[in-house]
Structure formats: structure tokens, C-alpha cells
Amino acid sequence: MFRTSKENFISESSKTLEEIYEMLHSLKSISLQKLQKDKTVLIMVDLINGFIREGALKSSRVEEILPAVLKLQKACIQAGIPILAFADSHTMASPEFESYPPHCLAGTSEEEIAEELKQAGGYQLIRKNSTNGFLEEEFQKWLLSHDKINNFIIVGDCTDICIQQFAVSLKTWFNKENRKTRIIVPMDLVETYDLGVHNGNLVHVMSLYNMIINGVEVVQAVEVG
């Protein structure tokens, strides 16, 4: 049910979007060196061919963040910071294809990590069969066996789907456990796609805002020196 007219909705939303835009631009960067390496993990989400270079859901917007992600990946490897890499991997039986076109099928090149990141290595691969990597049993086991980790740097795609779902799920799980953590999302290392009414710029900004109001620490960037 709409509680306002179309004109009022657009006018009020425009003002709000301007405020959110300015708020995001005022956020600071953080330094990787200031995070304790034994308490920090880098999590790369869906930086795979099927969202970057081939298939129904490829996006040049996502491809553009790869060089900066690679730089952070290498810095984490050098610092001894563990890295997890989620990768979508489905069969044709996936109910997800009722919402999205078939993508990232198991056994195809679409489910493979982007070549640049694969060459750098240093990560533990976790394949996932939904948009939310938090639900994967392998990640749950990793989380419980690494209970000293309290800094989670999350990068990848898509800002409004897999990134947002994972970051908010992770934060709220720690809230339930009464554990203080930093769930860190660098704005320059997450992206989404443009397709029809799915305006990449709009959903990117609104998703960052939604993560902030749910306790996720959105930052301009993670500086590596």
C-alpha cells in the first residue's frame, strides 16, 4: 500500500538519496596494517567468471574492481591473513533459477574464480548453492573453528544480494552470540550489475546504507600501504 503520492514519493526520496550519498562519501578508509592479522580474515564473494566475463549475469562493473581486489588479496597473503573465496555453484535443479537466469553451473567455467585471483592463490574455496554464503555448512564449520577472528573484510559481488545477505547474516549471528566484531565492507571493492530496472548505482548505494543501519562497517577502502 502506498502512503503517499508518486510526486511526494519521488521528491522525498530524492532528498533522502542525496543525504545517503553525502554520508557515504564522508566515510573514512581504514589501514590493513592496523588490523591484527591473527584476528582478521578476507572474504571474497563470487568473484568468478559467471559474474564477471561470461554467462547471463556477467557484469563489467564487477570486472572493474578486480585489480584493487587482487592488490588486497596479495597484501593479505603477505601479511599471513587467511582468505576465503565463495563461489556460486548450481545444478539445473536450483530453485534460484526461478528468480535469476541459469548461471554458474557446476562443472563449467562460470563457477571458476577469476584467473587473476586464482593465479595469486592463497585462499580456501567454498562453493555455495544460494545467494547467502553464511548458510553453507563448510563456512559454518570454518567460523566455529576460527573463533579468534573478529575482523571480517568482505569484498566482491553483488552488493545488494550476496554481499548484503552475507554481511548482515554474519553481523546478526555475532550479535546473537553477544560477540563484538567488525564486519567491514570497503565501498571500492564491492559492486553490482545493471539490468532493466535494476539500476546498479541505486541498488549499490541503498545496499551500502542498509548494511550500515544493520551494524556493518562500510568504509571507503582498505589501504594496504
What does this structure look like?
The protein has helices at 6-25, 49-52, 60-63, 66-79, 115-120, 137-145, 159-176, 200-213, and strands spanning 30-31, 40-45, 83-88, 124-128, 151-157, 182-186, 190-191, 217-219, 222-223. The chain starts with 5 loop residues before the first helix and ends with a strand. Strands 2, 3, 4, 5, 6, 7 and 8 form a seven-stranded parallel beta sheet that branches. The longest helix has 20 residues, at 6-25. Helix 5 (115-120) links the parallel strand 3 (83-88) and strand 4. With 225 residues, the chain is α/β, with parallel strands linked by helices. It has eight helices and nine strands. The chain is globular and about 55 Å long. The chain has one domain: Rossmann fold (3-Layer(aba) Sandwich). This is Amidase. Residues 40-170 form the Isochorismatase-like domain. GO terms for molecular function: nicotinamidase activity. It comes from Anaerocolumna chitinilytica. InterPro entries: Isochorismatase-like_dom, Isochorismatase-like_sf, NIC1.
Unreliable spans: none
Radius of gyration: 18 Å
Largest sheet: 7 strands, parallel
Total strands: the figure is 9
Mean of all residue-level pLDDT scores: 95
The CATH architecture can be named as 3-Layer(aba) Sandwich
- Under CATH, the topology can be stated as Rossmann fold
Task: Give the helix proportion (percent range).
Answer: 25-40%
Order of helices and strands: HEEHHHEHEHEHEEHEE
